[in-house]
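Supplementary notes for students who missed Thursday's class. We covered one full example, reproduced here. Read the sequence, then the structure, then the short commentary at the end.
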Amino acid sequence: MIDMNEMMSRLSKSRPVFHSEADLQHALAWEIHKHYSNCSIRLEIKPPYLKERIYLDVWCVHGKEIIAIELKYKTRGLIVNVNEENFGLLNQSAQDIGRYDLIKDIQRLEQIVSSRSSIVGYAIFLTNDSAYWTIPRSNQTVDASFRIHDGRILTGELSWAPGASEGTMHGREDRLHVKGAYNLKWKDYSEISQKSYGKLRYLLVKANIKKIR
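Structure (token representation):
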């Protein structure tokens, strides 16, 4: 079985930061291929046996095991040179939308892993924005249900609070249903600068509709 935490740890040594989500996607796929050369890897693929139009970021077939991976890379603005390469991270903010999209990935992965026993699903969220992993000071926010801070147990039906604007919810109006229960544990990924937002951390969730992971 491929250990995704190990893959992220190995990746952090050679690629401590990324230009974009697509950059992360390709780098992780290559890291898996380096250590599991017999693993067949495809990017942006729609599993052929699913009726829904679901596309996955990374799809690995490793022997009898299939690994489905969804990736998110959310950044705060930072200009930095790492290993003689310049990186200009965008100031994406919109954490409420970032949280919603991650949980939707988890919901989608639960659907996929429940379709076949051979499939293992992982949602990976990498960011240099501490607002994602920090325990909020207040729960009186429109995205309180979608918080993904360290130590949260993520489960159940989740929705926007009253007062959420149409602009915020546009394309994301649906309630989300998380069947499993996930103890969210953030891990350090890299430290690329002593400036604000110079530290990257990641959250890895293994989709499982029964147990806390």
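Commentary. The longest strand covers residues 65-74. Residues 4-206 form one domain. If anything here is unclear, bring it to office hours.
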